[in-house]
Structures are given as C-alpha cells and as structure tokens.
C-alpha cells in the first residue's frame, strides 16, 4: 500500500494509539497519545480511517510516499488508484470481509467497478439440496470446500440452482415448484420472487439471465401442464400436444409474473442447462422429426427462435447434447457412437457456418465410489464446466465426479476436493458484490 503512514515492507500502520504505552523514546509522542486500555476496536478503526483520509507527512513510515504526497499530490493519488485496482483482484472471500470494517467500505462495495464480476473471482458451486463452494482451483486441483448458508433455507429445505449470472444465483424449490429466489451467496443479499399460480401434473423449466441492451434481469419459466391422466412424462415419451404450454416472465424490477404467450417447442425436460449468450437463453428441444433443435429465448423481445445447427455433426440428431458457454460462445458436447464426445463451438453467434469442432473427448468411465454406478454413467454425455488456464477442459459426469481432460495427451484426471458432497451438480459462478436490484 502506498501511504505515508504505512510501512512499505510489511504493511504495518504507524498510528500513535497502536504504539506501546508509556513515553516515546524518541520524544515525539506524549504518553497520552499512545496505547491506553480505554481504546476500543471502534476507536482504533476510526483512527485508521482518519489516517487513510488525512496522512501525516511529518512523521512518516514511508518517506518516499510522504515526499510524493507533499510535493506531487496528483502523482501520489494516481499511484494509490493503481493499488486499489490491484486490490480489487483479491478473491471475493477476502473482499467481502471488508464490508464488516465500516460503513465506508460497505458503501464502496456498491461501486460499479468493484461490483462487476471478474474472472479472478470464479468459483465452483456444488448444489445438492445444500450449497457448497470452492474458490476456483488451480490446474492440479486441491483446495477446501466450504458451505453457503442461504438465509431462506428454513422455508425452502430442498432446492436446485437454476443457473448463475453476474454473481447472482437463481434458486428454485425442487419439491413444491412454487418458491424461487435470486441470491448473491457472498453478500447474502436475496430477493424472493412472487409465488405463481399453483398447478398439478406438469413440468417446469426455468432460466435466468441479463440482457445488456435493456439493462434488465429476467427469470423465465416454461410451464408444461400435462393434458392426460396425470402420468409423469419424460420429454422422450411425449409430444408438444401432450401439454398445455405457457411461458411466464418475471423482471427483477417488477413485482408480478406475467404471461408471454405459448411455448412453441417441447424442450428437453431432463436438461438442466440454459446457457446465456448474446442476451438469449438456450435449451435443447426434445427429439422430433429432423432431430433435436437448439432453441433460444431473447430476453429483450421475449421471442423464441431456432439456432442454426451445422449439417456435418452426426451425433446432434437425436442424442442429448448438453449446451455450455466457452470463451463467451455457445458450445455443445455432442455424443458419438464410439462413446467419445466432440465439443463444437459457434464462434460467431447465430451464424451456421461458424460452428467449429474445437475438441475431441475420448470415452471415459470415471472412478466412482460405488461400482454399481459406473454402468449407469458409461453412456451419459459429459457436462462442460469451463476451460482451465492450461487449456485443459473441466468436465462433470452428471453428479458422479469431476475431471479435467487434456486434449493434447488424451488423458483424464479425476478431481476431488476436501469436503465435497457425494452427489452434486456443479455450477461455474463468478463471485461479485452485485446487488439484486442494481444491474452491473
């Protein structure tokens, strides 16, 4: 830290009330100015705040900083700004503690530069009716898993994480299908969404995202009410005619759900992915004539559209292919006949010819704790979590295990972390100070 009263070698502050009690050997301070038992935590923090705002350049701990503060004030302020910018790259778990220091730090957390999600604050959230997280691990794994404690968990004991957007999690009740929250797990700031009209014998698909043009967050809910005798149907055993289909939209600045018309597609009811690209949420449709389609929903005009697929991907017909976001582009993990998977990326959004096969992932059976689970996961497609800094691919085998894959060598490496739950769904999350009603 660049400050006249902060030692440059170890960051200690030079404040009279923190000096040992008694007379100053140098004769500069009176004993009444030094440490006394009457000082409290509050008085010490107030002294530090006063020191930061009004440096004492007559008795400096950093002589160079004192001279620059006195003679070159503008240069000194610019150097301080650079220090502050570097501090913003600290892990979110460190930054969040600053809000407990004083009201000024808490106010600073609302600053648009500080609240904007940063790549350095990526973490993994493990959802399994409880929320766990780990700061983004290095390429070799490691780290300790910690637990979030949502303030609303008593009223919603079983929930699922729909998705993450700009440091916010969309969380829905996994049992009653009624309650839903938007939640910043690091600030504990949350918003409970209004309870929609109750219904029975149906399925719900939920998405959440932000559109930069309209500067608005929206929660999207597709409600499929079953028309028949109430039997639970999977998307592979039903058609669009089996359901009454309606889409409901909630804007975070509003207070009610509103209908946005009928859903013109039967989406894959088993899919939990709704990646956000270019202000549009994306899903894979259920199998139909011509194969599975990629469907987008524009958060601005609230219209469904088909996303063009490449013609030369054999596995993109009727197999499930989880969608993801890689380097800001829409991507798909396409299952092949030989148990391998191909990662295709649409480098230019909505341009059919821009689809490119970026990676091949060979067939792999993860080392599961229960051997009876291995066969059930053999033919399930992988979920792409993200790319690591060493260009390896971070993948999940549907609640069974995490692994990194090196496309150059073709080798997998199982990843585990201390305290990780046994069964989970992994969400890539970017921690931030983002407040629910204030778009970044």
UniProtKB/TrEMBL annotation:
Entries under InterPro entries matching the protein: F-box-assoc_dom_typ3, F-box-assoc_interact_dom, F-box-like_dom_sf, Gal_Oxase/kelch_b-propeller, SCF_F-box_component, UBC, UBQ-conjugating_AS, UBQ-conjugating_enzyme/RWD
Domain UBC core: 1-89
Any GO molecular function: transferase activity
UniProt-annotated catalytic positions: 14
Protein name per its UniProtKB record: UBC core domain-containing protein
Keyword Cytoplasm annotated: no
Gene3D superfamilies registered for this protein in UniProt: Ubiquitin Conjugating Enzyme
PANTHER family xref list: BNACNNG10540D PROTEIN, F-BOX PROTEIN CPR30-LIKE
Entry keyword annotation includes Transferase: yes
Sorted UniProt keywords: Transferase, Ubl conjugation pathway
Origin superkingdom: Eukaryota
């Amino acid at each position: 830290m660049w400050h006249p009263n902060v030692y440059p070698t170890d960051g200690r502050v030079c404040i009279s009330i923190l000096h040992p009690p008694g007379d100053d050997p140098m004769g500069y301070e009176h004993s009444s100015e030094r440490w006394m038992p009457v000082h409290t935590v509050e008085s010490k923090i107030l002294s530090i705040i006063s020191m930061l705002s009004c440096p004492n350049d007559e008795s400096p701990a950093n002589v160079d900083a004192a001279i620059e503060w006195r003679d070159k004030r503008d240069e000194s302020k610019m150097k301080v700004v650079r220090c502050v910018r570097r501090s913003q790259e600290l892990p979110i778990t460190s930054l969040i503690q600053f809000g407990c220091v004083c009201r000024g730090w808490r106010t600073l957390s609302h600053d648009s530069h500080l609240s904007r999600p940063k790549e350095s604050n990526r973490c993994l959230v493990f959802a399994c009716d409880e929320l766990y997280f780990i700061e983004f691990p290095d390429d070799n794994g490691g780290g300790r898993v910690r637990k979030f404690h949502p303030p609303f968990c008593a009223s919603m004991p079983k929930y699922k994480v729909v998705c993450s957007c700009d440091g916010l999690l969309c969380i829905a009740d996994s049992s009653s299908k009624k309650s839903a929250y938007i939640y910043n797990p690091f600030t504990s700031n949350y918003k409970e969404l209004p309870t929609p009209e109750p219904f029975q014998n149906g399925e719900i698909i939920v998405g959440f995202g932000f559109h930069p043009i309209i500067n608005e967050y929206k929660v999207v809910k597709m409600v499929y009410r079953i028309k028949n005798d109430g039997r639970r149907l999977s998307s592979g055993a039903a058609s669009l005619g089996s359901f009454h289909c309606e889409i409901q939209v909630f804007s975070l600045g509003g207070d009610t759900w509103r209908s946005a018309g009928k859903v013109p597609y039967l989406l894959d009811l088993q899919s939990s992915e709704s990646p956000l690209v270019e202000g549009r949420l994306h899903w894979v449709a259920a199998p139909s004539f011509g194969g599975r389609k990629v469907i987008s929903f524009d958060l601005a005009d609230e219209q469904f559209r088909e996303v063009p697929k490449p013609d030369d991907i054999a596995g993109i017909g009727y197999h499930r292919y989880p969608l993801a976001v890689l380097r800001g582009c829409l991507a798909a993990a396409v299952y092949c006949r030989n148990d391998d998977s191909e990662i295709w990326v649409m480098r230019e959004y909505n341009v059919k010819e821009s689809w490119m096969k970026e990676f091949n992932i060979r067939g792999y059976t993860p080392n599961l704790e229960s051997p009876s689970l291995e066969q059930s996961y053999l033919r399930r497609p992988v979920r792409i979590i993200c790319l690591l800094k060493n260009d390896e691919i971070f993948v999940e085998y549907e609640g069974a295990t995490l692994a990194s894959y090196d496309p150059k060598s073709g080798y997998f490496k199982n990843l585990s972390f201390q305290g990780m739950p046994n069964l989970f769904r992994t969400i890539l999350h970017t921690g931030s100070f983002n407040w629910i009603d204030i778009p970044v």
